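User: quick one, fold this
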Amino acid sequence: MSSPEIGAGAAPVVQKEHPIEYRRVYVWELPVRFYHWINAVALVMLCVTGYLIGAPIRAFYAAEAWQQYWFGWIRFLHFVSAFVYVFNFLARLYWGFVGNKYAKWNNFFPLTRRQRDEIVDVIKTDVLQTRMHGTISTGHNALAALIYFFTFLVFCFQTITGFALYSSMSNSWLPRMFVWIVPLMGGEFAVRFWHHLFLWFFVCFTIVHVYLAFYHDYIEGRGTISSIVGGWKFEREKE
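Assistant:
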């Protein structure tokens, strides 16, 4: 039996789409969120003060230089931020072993076939933009996690070279542990050059990181930005 035709005065039949169901997933635990924001503040302070140390600006004051201490405060803030950054990272290192599955250290290494395929997929989607939609990960996607791992390596390099530079003006045991780095790298000038050069790695990383966070929040609509404040993301229910 054929279906009746729609008459001229009849309204067309509109099929209602089923709404997409999402569920809340607790992704970023409180220690991870604390680490992120402490790390963000310390990193900005390190970049700003580090740049000023490498290329100090003129300070036009009526007082003599010996009566001022603005550059001393710049150095002090740099040193304090460095210590905060180091111990904050050590806390995150510990949490990588005891935290939930999204905080584990195995997420940062592309050890499985799925992770390697996801790296290629994210490059096609986010970088080359040859695909409209890529794989949506609840935690870090595999490419972001791998970049974070390289960021940790650069951070370790900055820590070693920074304490090596500090060792010449400090009697504390922590900086003095790295005094041998200066002759190994060919002198203080070379250490300072590489330490300052990798500052720009963190500047570029911060710009790209903030952009991609807002990009994924807009494209995916799953609470990427708010998750680093409250810890929750939204995951699509399996059909």
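User: anything notable?
Assistant: The beta strands are 22-26, 232-236.
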